Amino acid sequence: QVQLVESGGGLVQAGDSLRLSCAASGRTLSNSAMGWFRQAPAKEREFVSAINWSGADTSYADSVKGRFTISRDNANAKNLVYLQMNSLKPEDTAVYYCALRTSPFLATSSARYSVWGQGTQVTVSS
Predict the structure, then answer these.
(1) Exposure check for the chain: N or C terminus, fewer CB within 10 A?
(2) Where residue 77 falls among pLDDT bands split at 50, 70, 90?
(3) What is the distance between the alpha carbons of residues 123 and 40, in angstroms, rounded to a whole number?
C-alpha cells in the first residue's frame, strides 16, 4: 500500500520561501502523476500544482503561477516530489497535501487523485 508523507512546512514571513517535499513508500512514483493541493481554514481544498510522470508537463493555479515550482526526482528509484514556494503571501497559509494519481497524466481535480498524504502546515505571517 503506497503512503505519502509531506514535510517542509512551517511558519514564515511574507516574502520568504519554503520547499515542501513529498516522499512515497510502497510503490514507485515514476509512472504516476502527482499533485499538490491546499486547504485553508473554512475553505475547500484547492488545486495548487501538478506534474506528469516524467516531469515534462506541469500545471499551476493562477494564484501561485510564477511563484511556485513543482518538480520530481524519479532517478535511482527516488520517490520524491517537491513544491518550491517563493514570495509567499499570507493568503498562501493552508495545510498542503501531496496526492498521487495512478495515471501518468496530470490532472487539476482532486477527484482524480486516489492517494493522499496527511498534509503539512504552511503559515505565512504578514
Answers:
(1) N
(2) low
(3) 10
- Is the distance from CB of 18 to CB of 92 less than 8 angstroms? no
The grid coordinates listed for 28 are 514507485
Average pLDDT on 39-63 reads 96
Question: Considering only CA atoms, which of 94, 100, 95 is closest in space to residue 116?
Answer: 100
Rounded Cα distance between 45 and 58, Å, is: 19
Distance CA 126, CA 124 (A): 7
Question: What 3-state class would DSSP assign to 111?
Answer: helix
* pLDDT for res 76: 67
